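dumping this here before i forget
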Amino acid sequence: MSAPPTAGDSGSVLDALPSPLDSVADSREAARWTLASVGAVGALLLGGGPLLAVGRIGDWTHALWAGGGLFVALVGIAWAMWQTSEVLVPPLTTPAVLASPALRGLREQLDAAPGYYFGSMATDVEGLLRHRRVALEISRRLPASEAAERAALERGLATAHRNIVRTDPYLRWLLATAHAWIVREKLRKARRHTFLSAVLVITGAVVFLGATGR
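structure:
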């Protein structure tokens, strides 16, 4: 995942670089392949094989073991599919998301090299957003201001808008990076849960086959 150029580069240069969002499609394609694989395993568990094996059960004890094993295996399948499908849900990425635990690694990168991400526009996320807050505050004061104060406020608002135009490319780049980072972290989490669910599936299948394999 690349980062924006350093200080002095314009927004057009930032927009010309490969977007961090390009990696989102690859992450979601990996999630789709995982879902397809898990779905195939689920179809195998619910296919004709288990139904034929049930016919070999001769008592309630083995029936309970077989039913419990099949249930555990299907829970593992459902768990993996649920966690992996979260990767396909588009996250809502706002500046507030940058404070979430999922983006701790990104925040460490920002703190380590702020100039690499913010250029000369700011040193942190708050610096990028400061001009928006200034513009909002001035806009709230304008309707109730007197003529002499209004002229000063309008000049300040124009300055804030110019600064917003300068910082917006960096803010868009940062939010795009955060969005791609969130999707990547969801995929990593889904992989861990898929591995754990595979343990459930194997355990359930072993119990089922042990109960029906007499």
